[in-house]
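TICKET #2291
ISSUE: user wants both folds in one file
ATTACHMENT 1:
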Amino acid sequence: MSDGTGRAEGAMRIIRPEAHRVMPWRNGFGTTTEIAIDPPGADVGGRFRWRLSIADVERSGPFSAFPGYDRTIMVIAGRGMDLVVGDRPAQRLDRLFEPFVFSGDKPAECRLLEGPIRDFNLMVERSSLRSHMVVARLYETPCLLDAVSVDLIIHCFGGMIEFTLRTGAPAGTLEPNCTAILSHLTGARAELQAVDRGGRATAAIIELRPALTS
């Protein structure tokens, strides 16, 4: 797709649930559903730029360490948890769809409040990327996103979402549990709108920007 100057406006791929990879935790306390990892096919035990996943946490216990990564987590089902990171006071995460950012350098442990939970996770390599996650409650009014030297990830939790790029041509439709990855959107505008019955949908919107270097 071109902006009229010969430059590519962006590349897009949609990831559906059948492409997810499910793997058990090393400590046996839960499972992780990997939605996407960059570069594609990378081993989470090695180096990667970013990774998006959903975890089913069955009991209290430690999280795996990821030195050099910044992590964003939010509870999407269940009654929540207290998250202890390093020597910081416990952070209570008992509201759904509220992102919390912490460093993967420090040991982290979760203490479930009332039974198992499901959480949504983003990890980014600190030396190469900065990230920002928000949750959008979409209605019939479009949500406009301006992208400057940025990649966008849109994950649909519920409802159905149609998104377009600034050309106005439909770029794609997301059903529940589907994810769109829009790359190289320098100067582009993305428009999101709920198209499901009742005109309501919920989505995580993630911006990935290059880390500033000295």
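ATTACHMENT 2:
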Amino acid sequence: MKYRRLGDSELDVSEICLGSWLTYGGAVERRQAESCIDAAFDAGINFIDTANVYSGGRAEEFLGEMLQSRSRDSYVLATKVFGEMPDGDRGLSRAQILKQIDGSLSRLRTDHVDLYQCHSYDRDVPLEETLAALTDVVRAGKARAIGVSNWNGKQIRAAVALARKNGFAKIVSSQPEYSLLHRNPERGVFPASRENGISQIVWSPLAQGVLTGKYAPGAGYGGGTRAEARGDTFMSRYLSDEVLTRVQRLRSIADSLGLTTGQLALAWALREPNLASVIVGASRPEQVVENAGASGVDLDATALAAIDEAMAA
């Protein structure tokens, strides 16, 4: 496992991050979830990402239980604030940030998180109020660093400028969706981040599993797959025969490099120097091991050109 520095922080994170959206404390059976956590540590993964809203707080509760037996300095723990909780609380107001960090710490059974992230941009709260509250969280020792998720380049630049002006805690990370099928952050988020010492922690680098190549065009979805459960919502944009045909072209490239198609897609994302880590979900320990195998893979110019050609419409 390779590690990268997270922006201008003191945190070194594994190139592969274990995420907990739709999995732990939720859809994945507990014993399987426990096996995934163990497999992650065995593979050298030290970075775990969650959020207060995942499974209504149960993801944090599960991780809090699972991490009790491990040394606190053996992992980097990230969580988020913004989304609506079961009691209706939501947003990035000062009151919410101070309330939600305490709730997360209680569920996670720790006195601090390493990275506290705004899960989305809150247009209903002044940015200065949000940044001031996050700064107080850091100064109280409840978070070592702060980051943002799903913010655009303009929002990131505005936050950095305001932080410099007022002496607020510095944003060290950005968490956008990014993959071979979703490259939008290259236009705005990446440049704004590079200019300001901010690293990317990208979510859905496998496009909800589509980039593993397991969905063939015209074949339908297998029983129990994420596509079967969610194909008419978030994943629908990736499940057309045209997109799936392009993804199938990656298989021969992966084979020639001794990789799985999923490992190839993760290695492609990690080619970007501004990335610190890619977040992967896993419902089985074998998936954790396979994903970890993408760390340290160096794709040369020939491989990258072949990928570009395969993905061309």
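RESOLUTION: both attachments delivered.
EXTRA DETAIL ON ATTACHMENT 2: The domain at 3-209+272-297 is CATH 3.20.20.100 (TIM Barrel).
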